[in-house]
Amino acid sequence: MFLSVLGVLLSWLIVPQTPFSLRIVDDETGAGIPHTRVVSDSGIVCYTTVTGGTLWGESSVMNRHVTFTLSDNGAQYEPMNATVAVSRGKQITLRVHRRS
Q1: What is the pTM of this model?
Q2: Domains located in the chain, CATH noted
Q3: What would the DSSP string read from start to end of the chain?
């Protein structure tokens, strides 16, 4: 019994867990927005890559609806809150409006 439990635990640790992917893009051009601050409703902070992407692997955001707060350092885009269903391997793109 101990060996079967140990085997399950080890397989979970060895097999990579696919993260949730969130991409932030300009609503007019579709281009990814780099360096956007993304905060989950559980307080986890990430910044987007140069292509506008972030990866979320934290178990605290998985398999539930999560509200993300988006803001960019240059204040070129409107701040935004978005609630999305998060799960491993899922990919979501959010479109953000540029300030006029």
Answers
A1: 0.82
A2: 18-96 (2.60.40.1120)
A3: -HHHHHHHHHHHHHSPPPPEEEEEEETTT--B-TTEEEEETT--EEE--TTSEEEE--GGGTTEEEEEEEEETT--B--EEEEEEE-TT-EEEEEEPBP-
